[in-house]
Amino acid sequence: MSLDEEFCDSPYQFMKTHVVRVVLSNQFQKPITNEVTAFVVESPYAPAIDNAPRPNSKVCHLHLVEDPGAPPAPKYTRKVYWCHYDKNDSHSTILGRKHAYMFTPQMDGCSFGAGALSSDGAATVVHSNAVDFGSQHLNDVNGVVGALKMQAHKQTEMLDQTFSQANKSLGRIISPFSYMSENGGIEFRMKATIFGRRNTDNQWKFYSHVYRTLGMKYIHCGVNKYARTLT
């Protein structure tokens, strides 16, 4: 089975086997709707993976057909929900029952919030970034870790505000300290592909596929369920 077919068959199982980075070009702009067409290709740099789940594990890039700078789409693509990102801003979207997966841009300091399901089975999710706010505090807090704490705190405020304005309840937050933690500290080379998965009971669950860069190599750090089932 080709990589693109394997991904479309089950993105969840695919990320348990391969490293998957969401890669967007500088030509990409927020789509008109929250529905996009995703596909994967093997990284053109063919980096090695330490602690690979399988001997044939690959580093793959997840692209969107809607990105003008993306490579040509392979044979197999998959429709998914998309939660957009902008620096120093929050973006929200509503997940329904039309698609079984949701993706958002690579996270390396941002926060992600998920709300309770509405009566029609829809779930609201938000991607928040406050990197400049954290950078402003580099000199008056405990270095880069302290600045990240300030950034995460501000992002929580942004999530609360976004959900409050929409009259929704914030059920769970995935902060940078949940996917960048290693051996009791913070590892800034840890990054996450956050995704949502709707099960056969129409319940949305949210996960982080975490990986770490190590020079020209990658370390596959697993797929973790960070949010409770939203019912």
Give the radius of gyration: 17 Å
Ranges where pLDDT stays below 50 over 5 or more residues in a row are 227-231
Going by helix content, strand content and strand pairing, the class is alpha+beta
User: Can you summarize the main beta sheet?
Assistant: 9 strands, mixed
Strand ordering within the main sheet: 1-4-2-5-7-13-14-15-3
Oligomer: single chain
> In the residues, how many domains can be counted?
1
Strand content: 35-45%
Q: What is the N-to-C order of secondary-structure elements (H for helix, E for strand)?
A: HHEEEEEEEEEHHEHEEEEE
Q: How confident overall, as mean pLDDT? A: 90
End-to-end distance: 35 Å
How many β-strand runs?
A: 15
List keywords for this structure.
231 residues, alpha+beta, nine-stranded mixed β-sheet, four-stranded antiparallel β-sheet, disordered C terminus
Written account of the structure:
With 231 residues, this protein is α+β, with helices and mostly antiparallel strands. The protein has one domain (3-225). The chain is built from five helices and 15 strands. Strand 8 (111-115) and strand 9 form a beta hairpin. The longest helix has 23 residues, at 143-165.
Question: Secondary-structure map with pairings?
Answer:
Blueprint: H1 3-9, H2 11-17, E1 19-22, E2 35-42, E3 49-50, E4 59-64, E5 78-82, E6 90-95, E7 101-103, E8 111-115, E9 123-128, H3 131-135, H4 143-165, E10 170-174, H5 176-179, E11 181-182, E12 185-186, E13 190-198, E14 204-214, E15 217-225
Parallel strand pairs: 1-4, 3-15, 5-7
Antiparallel strand pairs: 2-4, 2-5, 6-9, 7-13, 8-9, 8-10, 11-12, 13-14, 14-15
Helix pairs in contact: 1-2
